[in-house]
Amino acid sequence: MLYKFLILSDEVDDFMREITIDASATFFDLHNAILDSVNYEKDQITSFFLCDDEWEKQQEITLIEMETSSEYDNLVMDTTALEDYVTDEKQKLLYYFDLMGDRAFFITMQELIPRQNSDKAVCTRSEGTPPKQFVDFNEMAVAQGTGDIDEQFYGDEEFNADELDSEGFGDVNFEEESPR
Q1: Could you tell me the end-to-end alpha-carbon distance of the chain, in angstroms, rounded to an integer?
Q2: At 12, is the secondary structure helix, strand, or coil?
Q3: Transmembrane region positions (predicted)?
Q4: In a 3-state reduction of DSSP, which class is residue 25?
Q5: Total Cβ atoms within 10 A of residue 31
Q6: Distances from the Cα of 48 to the Cαs of 93, 137, 153, 163, 164, in angstroms?
Q7: Which phi and psi (to 5°) does residue 161 adopt?
Q8: For the whole model, what pTM was predicted?
Q9: Of 4, 78, 136, 168, which is most buried by a Cβ count within 10 Å?
Q10: What are phi and psi of 169, to 5 degrees?
Q11: How sure is the predictor about 45, in pLDDT bands with cuts at 50, 70 and 90?
């Protein structure tokens, strides 16, 4: 059986990818197909989330094994078959390609194609330019007219770290010996 996934971005309106992949493939295979379709580097930590109909995150499937205190089992992409967790047309997933920037692709399983198999994933439709893989937060802040990140962080562009001494930290001696 084949699965046909539709991949969209909330950052770029005209971006769309459609990937057809065998149901017995792993989430790692889908991960690689997505990255190949958008020409992203494959050296970043990523995650899939199975979602409910409202796009609320449910089960996470990670690129590498991670310790979690989640109510769900820890699933890893290369050992988790698509057919074990993606079972219905219109099922929703999120693919976080930039965890630090909290950026993801929205994925919907568009079609189940019975009695067909494929050895590899295929991008069957590609429209638009994907969002940049990495975001320069300073560039984004300047584009939004909010100034430089450093200026925002410290409150003004005239911040001086040496002023901390005048705020009551100047007489603290950090080199005293601790009691034995």
Answers
A1: 69
A2: coil
A3: none
A4: coil
A5: 21
A6: 7, 24, 31, 45, 44
A7: -60, -30
A8: 0.74
A9: 4
A10: -100, -5
A11: very high
Residues 6+ apart with CB under 8 A from 76: 61, 62, 63, 64, 65
Name the percent of the chain in helix, strand, coil, to the closest 5. 20, 30, 50
The CATH homologous superfamily of the domain defined by 2-127: MM3350-like (3.10.290.30)
CATH 3.10.290.30 residue window(s) in the chain = 2-127
List pLDDT tens digits, range 57-89. Answer: 999 999 988 766 656 578 999 999 999 999 999
Contacts of 41 (CB under 8 A, 6+ apart): 35, 133
Structure tokens at 168: 């009551």
User: Which tokens go with 47?
Assistant: 């995650």
